[in-house]
Please model this.
Amino acid sequence: MEFSRRSFLEVGAAMSASMNATVAANDRIRFACIGCGARAHELMAALMVHPQAEIAGVVDAYRGRRERALDRIKDTRGTMARVYRDYREVIADKSIDAVIVATPDHWHKQMVVEALRAGKDVYCEKPLTYRSSEGLEVIQAARETGRIVQVGSQGMSTATQVRARQMIQEGRLGQVTMVRAAYNRNTASGAWIYPIPPDAGPETVDWAMFQGPSGKRELDLARFFRWRCYQDYSGGIATDLFVHLCTTIHFLMDAKMPAKVMAMGGLYRWKDSRDVPDTLNAVLEYPEGFTVNLSSTFNNQSSSEASFLFLGTEGTLSVGWGELKYWPEGVREDNRWIVESWPKRLEAEYWRDAKVQKAEMPGLGKARLVEGGTEWREQGQDASIVHFWHFLNSVQTRKPYWEDAVAGHHAAACAHMVNQSVRTGRLVGWDFAKDDIGS
Ligand SMILES: NC(=O)c1ccc[n+]([C@@H]2O[C@H](COP(=O)([O-])OP(=O)(O)OC[C@H]3O[C@@H](n4cnc5c(N)ncnc54)[C@H](O)[C@@H]3O)[C@@H](O)[C@H]2O)c1
Model:
């Protein structure tokens, strides 16, 4: 899919036009939200900005979240949504056109595939999968049913990232061989130790519904509300945070998958609360001709929470959340210290060479100011609102957006490769023919 500044402006214009339009109730796309936790509440708020969407139903394993979802929908739209007892009831309901899947990761694939097979379009939160091979099942279901899948790494819908992609594709950075991306935090909340609602217990929490395909354990509220900390439901930093970074890198660099991944990390600080690492470093090598360093620690946040550096022969692009900076490269050759160690006669000859004079003399003894650095700050719609605009557009036009099942599979699979490398201490390869982790 082609992105340009113009197309982004058109998106903006079309979006404000659509916001002003009145949409007849029976023309609205009827959504149900499967999993109404913290993220789903943000998503519901973002979706309800769009008049062509309606949230007709909700389902969640904790009573308080269902209650708050109903309140949110009523307060925003003045309508009552239906509460389903189980996600399978949502899937069986023919009056629902599309679902949001915002449950913990171990549920995603099953819910997405069942919804697609029942003819629904699906917006699934990242990571699309809990295991790499699940991505192939989702892609197959999307292809066979012709339904839309969009994955929720909303960062790629920001004007910042659309512009960054354009600059990289137009060659403003020259050849990019190195990308650095990081996600650093230093709070309990940042490390996913979220508060547990005081009314949580066997009466209000459906533990069996939460566990689903993860196996059978006794009720554990920490696992229920802080599921990212446990391998049974999540891949930790890699699937929670690196997946966003990989989505952006694939989008900006027009890249598919790394051929090889090597990663190291450990659980050094938040030892009592989890069985996933709290610090990770990964190196990914792409056949398109570049490498990526991903890093994350939950021990320090002095560098910004999430950021990227794209290093090219002609310039550097720093991509933050809502902030873009470009610096041109100010390179100059300087071999003085090398030739000063040669015999005097050869050094003198070196400086008499016209090519050397052209390349090295103008810079000697001079400092200069390099012009052409630029900075942008993003203003306007929140990324999730724009991301939903694309989803609604796809539902209407039947053309998937860039972050479809394949893009979602690949970004999540990078995270699974990182985890496999940390677990095994080995390099993990991608099998391009299978479109899955190599054996
Ligand atoms: N795109 C983003 O920026 C972003 C941000 C945060 C979270 N997320 C993603 O959103 C998803 C949800 O994360 P969260 O932070 O909202 O977690 P959460 O724990 O707050 O919400 C998950 C909800 O799912 C419910 N649930 C569990 N099993 C269920 C089932 N079988 N049926 C119905 N409901 C069930 C739980 O009761 C809970 O309320 C995750 O995949 C996460 O990675 C994305």
